[in-house]
Specification:
Shape: elongated
Low-confidence stretches: none
Distance between the termini: 19 Å
Strand content: under 5%
Order of helices and strands: HHHHH
Radius of gyration: 17 Å
Number of helices: 5
Mean pLDDT: 89
CATH architecture: Up-down Bundle
Structural class: mainly alpha
Largest sheet: none
Number of domains: 1
Length: about 160
């Protein structure tokens, strides 16, 4: 099992790097939206796509953890929301919480936004819909990134041979 932990640690750390690139790109583009230009809809599309990718990347990690560590992947119509909540729960004798409960509300906003991006035409996206997400993103990512890396450290400890 320790080989799998090492593989998951590698995956988490690699995904954190990729997620950081998405966050930084969304923030760069958001700064351009704040300036008056004729082509703001193109920037909004870019931001929406990067936020979609950001949450999708987080959810891929959460799925891996649920499937392989928790041995329990939520099912049903609300499985995406349930998965997010599962990651904020400590699994007794299995793992600590992956993310803190304080992150659920902001991450759930991103989850619902991702659903919106998947199910509406991009010309229906407005700057107002993105404003609060982008305002929260830097602080949210700072915390989630630290929590994911702390979880990777937890898994690294599990993969080490007992030194008694």
């Amino acid at each position: 099992m320790s080989g799998f932990y090492e593989e998951l640690v590698y995956r988490i750390r690699g995904e954190v790097s990729d997620l950081d690139r998405l966050v930084q790109k969304a923030l760069r583009v958001w700064s351009r939206v704040q300036k008056p230009e004729n082509e703001q809809d193109i920037y909004l599309d870019s931001i929406a796509l990067n936020l979609h990718g950001f949450y999708s990347g987080l959810e891929r990690l959460f799925e891996l953890i649920a499937r392989h560590i928790d041995q329990r992947l939520p099912a049903g119509e609300m499985w995406h929301r349930d998965l997010l909540q599962q990651m904020a729960e400590e699994m007794t004798n299995v793992r600590p919480a992956v993310i803190s409960p304080e992150r659920i509300v902001s991450l759930d906003h991103l989850r619902r936004f991702r659903h919106l991006v998947r199910n509406v035409y991009t010309f229906n996206l407005s700057q107002d819909k993105l404003k609060s997400l982008m305002a929260d993103l830097p602080g949210l990512w700072l915390h989630v990134q630290a929590e994911l890396l702390a979880f990777a450290d937890f898994l690294s400890e599990l993969s080490r041979p007992n030194q008694t």
